[in-house]
Amino acid sequence: MRKISLIIVLAASSLGANGICAAGRDITEPRFTFKHADGTTESVSIISDFIPKKIQHPVAKTDKNIDPKLLKAATIAQERANAHSRSQCWRYVKQALVAAGVVSSYPKSEYAKQAGQELVNNYGFKQLPVRDPFKAPVGAVLVYGASRAAGHVEIRTKEGFVSDFKSRVPSPRPLLGIYTKS
Fold it and tell me: Model's pTM, two decimal places?
């Protein structure tokens, strides 16, 4: 293992009155200088003002053609959601849909990845042609697949996504479909 010896040089102490360092370079910002084990010296500027760009996700839009009960289901799900997953996403979404009156009876499918088919076949939902979860309208039910797991289901809210927990970003699983009801 090679050892690196470090030498920290403050720019202010190495600058002359005109801002020129001993090596003849114009250095107006502070620099960090270090020496490699092989004897070569390298100098880099010190970044003192770093403001990271926050990732901005669009706020969901409300579609006037969607059943208003889906908006109520999104609110109910958000109120009942936990801070972290309890691996009961489909159960929480089912309960929110029933409590809001979106579905007439408790859905019977066991796995979350089966939710879309059951909602279409038994409850009058339609699959939207949208493939981007961020473009799903508020109240839409998003169904995700998984090869060897139960999948995931969540409802789009104005600020993010909710199932048994709240999230500002959608699930990383493959999206099977986005479903709404008129």
Answer: 0.68
